[in-house]
Amino acid sequence: MEMPDDSTAQTQSSDTAKPKVKLVDSVHRQIRIGKKATYPFMPDSCFNQLVLGNPDSFRVFRLENGADMIKIGNDRQAMAWYNSRKTEELQVAVTGNEKKGFYPYRFVLQRVYRNGATLFPEKHEFVDKANFISGHGIYLGMSVDYVENVYQSQTVTQWQKGDTLYLQYNPEKKDEQYFTHYNYQSYSAIYKFVNDDLCRVEYTVQPENFEPTPEKD
Questions:
Q1: Residue 213 in contact with residue 75, Cβ under 8 Å?
Q2: Cβ of 6: how many Cβ atoms within 10 Å?
Q3: Measured between alpha carbons, how far is 98 from 157 in angstroms, rounded to an integer?
Q4: For range 37-52, the mean pLDDT
Q5: 137 by DSSP, 3-state: which?
Q6: pLDDT band at 92, cuts 50/70/90?
Q7: Interatomic CA distance for residues 56 and 138, integer angstroms
């Protein structure tokens, strides 16, 4: 599958009819893709140079694309961006403040369907990109096989609810070396597919990892 870019990015009409599939629910089960997982794996942690847990990347991204920040509790705020075609939306939740910096702790990327609910009902900014693409080259519209190929020789959890298939990746102890800004056990990646079509991605770490250190009196 060819990766999209600004000129050839994949798009899918929100009006395109999807074939009906049998509704099946399943229990969560771990599956190992390929050979036994023995080597460290660097988890996906960014979309378009916006990096999970990196306040500098958020500062640059915000300066370049704007950010209508809405308070969601304590020192946590959230905001959302559309891609240039308004076919995708990326929601970002951050913790921190202007002085110490804002630390992104949750990314949610999903399709925008005509007349459908958005992730974030308040104002969206726009990013001058045709698609949001992850650090591992994952983008909306990929099939289950393509996403699984990214996690080759890793263990993921799979389950199905109705017509939706979920894949979830959580790091193992062997991957700890790649987590320098937060605990590896707090990281989770979830991929949601409908009719073998990736329609939602979630990257999350526990925001307590990024709570600013209280200033001393």
A1: no
A2: 10
A3: 37
A4: 87
A5: coil
A6: very high
A7: 23
Nearest alpha carbon to residue 86 among 167, 32, 9 = 9
The one-character DSSP state at 130 is S
- State both tokens at 150: 């990214």
Question: pLDDT at position 38, please?
Answer: 67
Q: What is the pLDDT of residue 191?
A: 97
CB neighbours of 141 closer than 8 A, spacing ≥ 6?
10, 12, 197, 198
Mean pLDDT of the chain: 82
Q: Which amino acid is at 5?
A: D
Whole-angstrom Cα Rg for the chain: 18
- What does the pLDDT look like over 127-175, one tens digit per residue? 999 999 999 999 999 999 999 989 988 889 999 998 899 999 999 998 9
Percent of the chain with pLDDT over 70: 79
* Structural tokens at position 125: 């900014």
Amino acid (1-letter code) at residue 2: E
Angle (CA) 165 170 171, round 5°: 150
CA distance 74 to 66: 22
User: How far is residue 147's CA from residue 188's CA, in Å, rounded to a whole number?
Assistant: 15
CA 109 to chain centre: 5
pLDDT per position as a tens digit, 177-202: 988 888 899 999 999 999 999 999 99
Question: For 37-85, what is the HEC assignment?
Answer: CCCCCCCCCEECCEECCCHHHHHHHHHHHCCCCEEEECCEEEEEEECCC
Please give the Cα distance from 91 to 152 (Å, whole number): 27
